[in-house]
DNA sequence: GGGTAAACGAGACGGTACGTCAAGTCTTTAG
DNA sequence: CTAAAGACTTGACGTACCGTCTCGTTTACCC
């Protein structure tokens, strides 16, 4: 994969906590005074992202994040409205995602590319589990829910809808079709298998999704 | 609604905790000994269902359920593997759902009927929120996840797939189509809007879902 | 030591739980019907004694005894008034103590023999810890307290007092001395070091006890 | 009693939980944040002491202490190693004991005074029962046992031994006598009757204890 | 360049819920 | 019919986090 795609992430950041050459020696006990806000924020997000990817939402507690970031809980509560909001922020901080939906002029090909990349993201990386747990947590965490809609699913929906609108202008897609619904039928179907995994998310599944919605399934 | 539908529930049970005529009188302090297992189970499920529907998963704790059922935590832990498993059981106990997917001979009409009923269930009753929270909880609760797949989503998938297979035998649907994928594109799309509610679940949305997948959206 | 003494026990019973030939196989699930009372009592006392001597009062619970005796809690509650009462009974069942205070005609020699044997019992066998824990438990267990006074300390006090009265009749001890008090100053002093072990119970300690009370400590 | 004595306590503190003049008014809902450690400790010890003296060790649970102190269990677990350690601390906090062993130059008189005062403490106040229960609890609570030896029985032993050594220097007591043993024969004998109450602790008992050990009981 | 205020770390605090254990009571069922 | 079996309530246990709050410290900014 040479390019990056919608709903996809470019790479997981490396969380290198120190060279193995380092001796266990003096732990560089930091004082307790004021430090630059940006630095503290960064360390908290590093710790949050690492914890989230390494151990999942089950082990993600504000206390653990504070402890591993060397920060205090007070500081975290000052900046993030809820555990979930911090987790989402940590996720974005960790994964360096790229939002893009390049047009090749063939909407079927573009949709296939995007959906397959998304399917791979969900199945081949730890992001799948993390996203699932974030969506799960959002069901009982208003702040996370709001953040998720605004910064995660919203922008991704828009990008896909815009690509389909461009295709319609090119005459590839029918007028009168609500592309928002199509998004639910492509990406939403993937989330369905992610969150209620009766069946796996496969390459074939991704292909069928696009095929069904583009050509219909009637006899 | 004169008939009942797939993924639909017939009615919420009434949680009548005693006629208002009853006097506050002797509280009938029960002893601590053994009571019939079935009775205890029933009272626990009543309490679990009521709590879930009234206050949601956020307020659903084993301690609350035990207190309101007049049961002990030990007993609950003996029978249910996790908080989520109890919640799911309480939900089923409360909603008396009916699984059915009647054929009229017109698959489009049948799918429309089912999806619309499902959309109404999610939006017009408290079941929508409860299902969302159960799915959310299942992301970090293995026992609930397993129960949900086996007793909730699994049977419902099968019913829909079977109906479409009957339609194919009648010549309504094309051979070579994976109906499991269609399920994800119809019901899964609804779950998408339930769990990531950037857009509402409407009658029009339900209609578009069926239309898109049956006839395709190509120009 | 060829003879046995007051406040002393002859031997610990062997707790052989089964021949090593026995296979781990079917646990011989006994039915729930009635068994001879004496047999059940015996098995319960075996289990209680073994548990008490092996793991101490901290691990001694009615549930453990019931489980290891293969009996039900109900049966235990029917025959013993409290946990402590069962423990005491189990202790007596296990240790096969002998109450005797033989006269040699020299009361100092006899007291020394008895006190030294008691000191050895407390320090060299597990009985010391068990007695301490039983006395401890008796402070918040009325039934055990009553049983302890009646079946343990009471008879032992009487035996010692009687021996000293015989010595008085022989002209060895002064008239007008309350021998009950002497018992507290000999055996009671040992219990003091058993229950509040600032100092150990030694051979020298035992000797000093007898010397002090027989001859006084004045200059 | 005009002076205060070894092993004796001066007075029980008054547990006044609020003047009756106080109105029921604003309940002064305290926030959940940190309060001065000393204040919290004090309130916990007040509650522990009051509970111990009022209802005894049987009703003494960490949960009750926390509830009545308006503190949280976590806080208690942070500072006290065990239930017994808290109880002992609460006892000391409540009774304001005075350790003193004044010399009059007549050791018999001084021992009599001290032993009688101790006997009165054990029989006339609630301290007797509490001490018995603490010693009882210590038999299965290592932390309490250690605290009891170090802060209770140890210092009291030393004081009595020191007084007798002073008497020996004055020529009142014989050389070569182990005064630690004498302590066991005086105070230990009292504990014997406290913990195994076959016979009561009386004024006459106290007198006999001192007489026997000072002058011997030989004919 | 010194003084001050904001932001920080540390972590104790009151709480809620967890999951476990034993005590003691009561129903069911086997013999 | 009766006693063993064992399911039940109760209540305390000790732990984990929650979100709040007090403290003392340290930097950054302003005068």
UniProtKB/TrEMBL annotation, chains A, B, C, D:
<dbReference type="InterPro" id="IPR050109">
    <property type="entry name" value="HTH-type_TetR-like_transc_reg"/>
</dbReference>
<dbReference type="InterPro" id="IPR009057">
    <property type="entry name" value="Homeodomain-like_sf"/>
</dbReference>
<dbReference type="GO" id="GO:0000976">
    <property type="term" value="F:transcription cis-regulatory region binding"/>
</dbReference>
<dbReference type="InterPro" id="IPR011075">
    <property type="entry name" value="TetR_C"/>
</dbReference>
<dbReference type="InterPro" id="IPR001647">
    <property type="entry name" value="HTH_TetR"/>
</dbReference>
<feature type="domain" description="HTH tetR-type">
    <location>
        <begin position="38"/>
        <end position="98"/>
    </location>
</feature>
<feature type="DNA-binding region" description="H-T-H motif">
    <location>
        <begin position="61"/>
        <end position="80"/>
    </location>
</feature>
<dbReference type="InterPro" id="IPR036271">
    <property type="entry name" value="Tet_transcr_reg_TetR-rel_C_sf"/>
</dbReference>
<dbReference type="Pfam" id="PF16859">
    <property type="entry name" value="TetR_C_11"/>
</dbReference>
<keyword id="KW-0238">DNA-binding</keyword>
<keyword id="KW-0805">Transcription regulation</keyword>
<dbReference type="Pfam" id="PF00440">
    <property type="entry name" value="TetR_N"/>
</dbReference>
<keyword id="KW-0804">Transcription</keyword>
<dbReference type="GO" id="GO:0003700">
    <property type="term" value="F:DNA-binding transcription factor activity"/>
</dbReference>
<protein>
    <submittedName>
        <fullName>TetR/AcrR family transcriptional regulator</fullName>
    </submittedName>
</protein>
């Amino acid at each position: 994969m040479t390019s990056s795609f919608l709903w996809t992430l470019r790479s997981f950041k490396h969380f290198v906590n120190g060279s193995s050459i380092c001796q266990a020696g003096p732990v560089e006990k930091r004082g307790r005074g004021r430090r630059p806000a940006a630095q503290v924020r960064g360390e908290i997000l590093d710790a949050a992202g690492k914890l989230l990817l390494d151990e999942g939402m089950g082990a993600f507690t504000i206390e653990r994040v504070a402890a591993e970031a060397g920060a205090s809980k007070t500081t975290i509560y000052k900046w993030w409205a809820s555990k979930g909001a911090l987790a989402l922020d940590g996720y974005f901080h960790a994964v360096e995602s790229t939002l893009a939906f390049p047009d090749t002029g063939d909407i079927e090909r573009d949709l296939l590319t995007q959906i397959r990349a998304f399917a791979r993201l969900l199945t081949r990386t730890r992001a799948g589990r993390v996203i699932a747990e974030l969506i799960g947590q959002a069901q009982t965490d208003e702040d996370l829910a709001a953040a998720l809609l605004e910064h995660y699913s919203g922008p991704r929906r828009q990008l896909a809808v815009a690509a389909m609108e461009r295709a319609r202008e090119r005459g590839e897609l029918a007028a009168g079709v609500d592309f928002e619904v199509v998004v639910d039928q492509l990406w939403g179907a993937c989330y369905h298998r992610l969150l209620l995994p009766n069946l796996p998310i496969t390459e074939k599944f991704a292909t069928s999704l696009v095929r069904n919605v583009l050509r219909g399934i009637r006899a």
